[in-house]
């Protein structure tokens, strides 16, 4: 089975990273798009973008076309492309570490109580934290290029 690797920050500057670690979840913002994306799970990428982009444009009118496309892409990857068994790299750079985890649930909508008000969620089993100083420079450079949410 092929695994994908995803990098996630959990809020601006990783504000919710420790809560995510302590409570075994990841989540993604865009809270103004307050809809259950399970309703769009069977759509192709093209159809998903057409339906969600309109909601994004209304929710974030100052975002501009490129930004709205990026936001929509993040929701699509989080809800439709991430799979159980994929690996997550949680960036906790303000604490000088990253944490690796395995996705344990399909996309969830508002199921886990969190410090954030993020509605788009997944359960995670955290497996290892690594101090950034113990990571090769090559891997540090790669973290930014892993499929990010």
Topology, element by element:
Elements lengths: L4 E4 L8 H7 L1 E4 L16 H15 L4 H18 L5 E6 L4 E7 L4 E2 L10 E12 L5 H7 L3 E2 L1
Parallel strand pairs: 1-3, 1-7
Antiparallel strand pairs: 2-6, 3-4, 4-6, 5-6
List key phrases describing it.
seven-stranded mixed sheet; alpha/beta; 149 residues
Notes on the structure:
It is a single chain. With 149 residues, the chain is of the alpha/beta class. It is 32% helix and 25% strand. Strands 1, 2, 3, 4, 5, 6 and 7 form a 7-stranded mixed β-sheet that branches. The radius of gyration is 15 Å and the shape is globular. The model has no long low-confidence stretch (mean pLDDT 89).
Q: Evaluate the radius of gyration.
A: 15 Å
Number of helices: 4
Largest sheet report: 7 strands, mixed
How much β-strand is present in the residues?
Answer: 15-25%
Report the span from N to C terminus: 21 Å
Low-confidence regions:
none
Shape: globular
Structural class: alpha/beta
Q: Average pLDDT value?
A: 89
Q: Helical residue percent?
A: 25-40%
DSSP strand count: 7
How would you classify the quaternary structure?
single chain
Order of helices and strands: EHEHHEEEEHE
């Amino acid at each position: 089975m092929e695994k994908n690797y995803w990098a996630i920050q959990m809020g601006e500057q990783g504000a919710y990273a420790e809560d995510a670690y302590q409570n075994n979840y990841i989540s993604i913002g865009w809270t103004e798009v307050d809809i259950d994306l399970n309703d769009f799970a069977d759509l192709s990428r093209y159809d998903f973008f057409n339906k969600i982009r309109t909601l994004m444009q209304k929710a974030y009118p100052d975002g501009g076309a490129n930004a709205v496309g990026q936001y929509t892409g993040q929701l699509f990857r989080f809800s439709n492309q991430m799979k159980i068994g994929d690996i997550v790299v949680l960036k906790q750079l303000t604490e000088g570490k990253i944490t690796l985890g395995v996705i344990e649930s399909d996309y969830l909508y508002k199921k886990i109580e969190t410090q954030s008000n993020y509605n788009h969620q997944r359960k995670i089993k955290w497996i290892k934290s690594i101090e950034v100083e113990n990571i090769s420079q090559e891997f540090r450079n790669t973290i930014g290029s892993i499929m990010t949410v």
